[in-house]
């Protein structure tokens, strides 16, 4: 079991127990904050395990009652981690938690000042979008163009005026300061409860997004990633206003962590039946629709613009340094690019960096190699554009490698660790080649680039992989998505 799955199971178990002991305590204005709590603390604890402390402290009775439970040892490990330096550690945790509350109140006051000096929002209707990170904005571009409707962005707390393209931004609504301060006393948890700082933050954001949605009242609210506590609160706020909520699949759900469990959206637009079953295994409530992925539609169009038989680039898809990818791992990817440039003078390399990858190694490498390395990042370039120019793709376990297989670009997975393998596992379906070292990867990539017709069996399995996980490749994926969204807008599909 991965760390993410283990942490998700523990967080889910503890909150389910907490609710059984304290009925309706996590209900605020008819919204159940439980799902947002799980997502919030899961995301916090993945980065800093000691920040799971609030639910651990609130669930000590669970631990005493479940000495033989398979998660008891996990509980103990996280609890010990939050106390590893004695009281000082807890003091730091509480200062951090309450510091966030103070920041939220300051930001809310700033928003209130802007509201007082601005004209009221008057954008009733249209297509509403919810995004917590601007890297998802470009994801909606083609869909918005196909919908041909008014649309807005609802943003959590920060302006993102750059890269909004044809959309207009609606600032998060403020809560009047008297009401915001009143939330400190209105909650069903006591002020000194360990969960209270998180509880307050969730209540405040729910009140803010509720006011935003009430003012704009979109006909439908679309989500991309949909796995954060912000997404969960926005979905529940929309439900209270009878605004349909639709999550558009944007990734593979490599690990079904807390963010994917018990999603509250009305509908999920998925790539394929396999993904429907995968998401439905942990989120039964939404209606599911198989639409395929517009990436395949765009790839076909982009490939027609280029000569398929004259692809001369290999594509490298990076991921940021994290627990699964070390600095040394990342360095190996750079060495791979250097070796390919050294061994093949005719070769060009495309690098597409993950949106949160801040490493500058490839930029420095590009400067030294006079045009032979082309950085093609989002949102300036789409994934389909990189595939249309490439004979093969390489990296660790990026979603882009599975999508490359679906688009007919042979993936070469640099498998330096057992962690470098994630659902839907293209390598296990014969739809990707594995290299366990840089030297092996260079050899395989060179073979693919120089003799692409030697890999007919791999290409056949890539086609099967594409059909199974990415759905129909008939060029109508976007049209199917539009049809479902418009049906919800017109009220042709009931929202429970």
Q: Which class do the helix and strand fractions yield? A: alpha/beta
According to CATH, the fold-level topology of the largest domain is Rossmann fold
Sheet-strand content, in percent, reads 5-15%
The global form is: globular
Q: Low-confidence stretches at least 5 residues in length (pLDDT < 50)?
A: 159-166
Number of domains: 3
**Sheet of most strands:** 7 strands, parallel
Contiguous helical run count = 19
**What's the overall average pLDDT, rounded?**
89
Assign the CATH class of the largest domain: Alpha Beta
Read across the widest sheet, the strand sequence of neighbours is 5-4-3-6-7-8-9
Q: What CATH architecture of the largest domain do you see?
A: 3-Layer(aba) Sandwich
The value of Rg in angstroms is 24 Å
State the end-to-end CA separation.
35 Å
Quantity of strands, as a count:
15
Within CATH, the superfamily of the largest domain carries the name Glycogen Phosphorylase B
- The level of helicity is 40-55%
Oligomer: single chain
């Amino acid at each position: 079991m991965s760390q993410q799955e283990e942490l998700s199971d523990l967080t889910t178990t503890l909150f389910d127990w907490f609710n059984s002991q304290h009925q309706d305590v996590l209900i605020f204005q008819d919204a159940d904050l439980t799902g947002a709590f799980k997502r919030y603390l899961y995301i916090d604890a993945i980065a800093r395990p000691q920040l799971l402390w609030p639910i651990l402290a609130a669930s000590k009775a669970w631990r005493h009652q479940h000495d033989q439970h398979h998660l008891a040892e996990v509980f103990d490990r996280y609890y010990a981690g939050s106390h590893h330096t004695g009281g000082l550690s807890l003091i730091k945790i509480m200062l951090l938690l309450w510091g966030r509350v103070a920041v939220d109140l300051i930001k809310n006051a700033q928003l209130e000042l802007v509201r007082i000096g601005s004209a009221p929002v008057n954008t009733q209707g249209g297509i509403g979008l919810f995004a917590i990170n601007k890297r998802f904005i470009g994801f909606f571009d083609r869909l918005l163009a196909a919908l041909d409707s008014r649309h807005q962005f609802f943003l959590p707390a920060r302006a993102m005026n750059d890269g909004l393209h044809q959309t207009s931004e609606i600032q998060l609504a403020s809560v009047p300061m008297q009401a915001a301060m009143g939330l400190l006393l209105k909650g069903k948890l006591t002020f000194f409860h360990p969960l209270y700082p998180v509880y307050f933050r969730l209540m405040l954001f729910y009140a803010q997004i509720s006011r935003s949605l009430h003012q704009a009242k979109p006909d439908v609210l679309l989500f991309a990633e949909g796995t954060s506590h912000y997404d969960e609160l926005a979905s529940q706020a929309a439900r209270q206003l009878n605004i349909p909520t639709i999550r558009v699949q944007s990734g593979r759900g490599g690990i079904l962590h807390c963010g994917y469990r018990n999603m509250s959206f009305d509908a999920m637009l998925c790539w394929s039946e396999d993904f429907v079953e995968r998401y439905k295994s942990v989120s039964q409530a939404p209606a599911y629709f198989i639409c395929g992925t517009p990436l395949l539609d765009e790839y076909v169009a982009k490939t027609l613009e280029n000569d398929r038989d004259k692809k001369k680039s290999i594509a490298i898809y990076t991921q940021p340094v994290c627990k699964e990818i070390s600095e040394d791992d990342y360095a190996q990817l750079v060495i791979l690019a250097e070796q390919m440039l050294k061994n093949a003078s005719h070769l060009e390399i495309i690098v597409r960096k993950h949106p949160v990858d801040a490493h500058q190694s490839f930029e420095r490498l590009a400067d030294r190699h006079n045009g032979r390395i082309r950085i093609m990042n989002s949102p300036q370039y789409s994934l389909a554009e990189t595939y249309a120019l490439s004979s093969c793709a390489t990296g660790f376990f990026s979603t882009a490698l599975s999508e490359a297989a679906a688009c007919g670009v042979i993936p070469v997975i640099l498998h330096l660790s057992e962690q470098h393998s994630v659902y839907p596992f293209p390598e296990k379906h014969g739809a990707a080649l594995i290299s366990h070292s840089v030297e092996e990867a260079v050899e395989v990539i060179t073979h693919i680039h120089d003799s692409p017709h030697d890999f007919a069996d791999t290409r056949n399995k890539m086609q099967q992989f594409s059909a199974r996980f990415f759905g129909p490749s008939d060029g109508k994926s976007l049209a199917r998505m539009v049809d479902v969204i418009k049906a919800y807008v017109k009220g042709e599909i009931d929202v429970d």
